[in-house]
């Protein structure tokens, strides 16, 4: 079993390229972001938590649906860009966080984990699922979006989604794959 990827892995990537996955310029990423927001329907959220905000491109779009948004990332290099990109949005807060090993108190209506879960080991993913469950309010939503093609990460996108779909703490609302990425919307059970 592969261990979770450390923060230094991401810092090295962002040192080489400030937008290594082309979040700000890729047509693929733009379409995926649109699909991600579409999965939420017309819902608005009092309090949302974005795990792995990277350089803050999706953060900016998600912020339009949230009264309060906490966006976190493991890489201070990525986070600095996210803060700059969203500086005009006072209801968005940023923190450096190594989730799930670090977390915070509070409760949220929505948690977004996009392109993050497969960087974790299976035990860390289970810990992340428990933390998300604990942080969600009753009937709160957990939205997962992960690339499903081959990678060298500790887990695959499908493994992440299947593990959380099997978790009795969540109920599936939507689960679909485009062949490139999988999108699963869960609700906190009980």
UniProtKB/TrEMBL annotation:
What's the short name of a Pfam family annotated to this entry? NodS
Gene3D superfamilies noted in UniProt = Vaccinia Virus protein VP39
Tell me yes or no: is Amino-acid biosynthesis among this UniProt entry's keywords.
no
> Keywords assigned by UniProt?
Methyltransferase, S-adenosyl-L-methionine, Transferase
Among CDD domains, the record links this protein to: AdoMet_MTases (cd02440)
Which GO biological process categories is it annotated with? methylation; oligosaccharide biosynthetic process
Give the GO molecular function terms: S-adenosylmethionine-dependent methyltransferase activity
Entries under InterPro entries matching the protein: SAM-dependent_MTases_sf (IPR029063), SAM-MeTfrase_NodS-like (IPR008715)
List the PANTHER family. Answer: METHYLTRANSFERASE (PTHR43464), UBIQUINONE BIOSYNTHESIS O-METHYLTRANSFERASE, MITOCHONDRIAL (PTHR43464:SF19)
Query: What's this protein's name?
Result: Methyltransferase
**Which lineage?**
Bacteria, Pseudomonadati, Pseudomonadota, Alphaproteobacteria, Rhodospirillales
């Amino acid at each position: 079993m592969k261990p979770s990827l450390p923060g230094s892995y991401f810092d090295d990537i962002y040192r080489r390229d400030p937008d290594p996955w082309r979040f700000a310029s890729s047509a693929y990423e733009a379409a995926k972001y649109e699909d991600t927001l579409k999965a939420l329907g017309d819902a608005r959220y009092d309090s949302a938590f974005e795990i792995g905000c990277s350089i803050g491109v999706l953060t900016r779009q998600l912020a339009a649906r949230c009264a309060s948004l906490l966006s976190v990332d493991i890489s201070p290099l990525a986070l600095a860009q996210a803060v700059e990109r969203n500086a005009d949005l006072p209801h968005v807060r940023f923190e450096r966080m190594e989730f799930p090993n670090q977390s915070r108190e509070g409760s949220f209506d929505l948690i977004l984990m996009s392109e993050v879960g497969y960087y974790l080991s299976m035990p860390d993913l289970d810990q992340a699922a428990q933390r998300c469950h604990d942080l969600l309010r009753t009937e709160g939503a957990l939205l997962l979006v992960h690339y499903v093609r081959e990678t060298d990460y500790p887990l695959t996108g499908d493994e992440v989604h299947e593990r959380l779909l099997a978790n009795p703490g969540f109920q599936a609302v939507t689960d679909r794959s485009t062949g490139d990425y999988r999108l699963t919307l869960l609700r906190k059970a009980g």
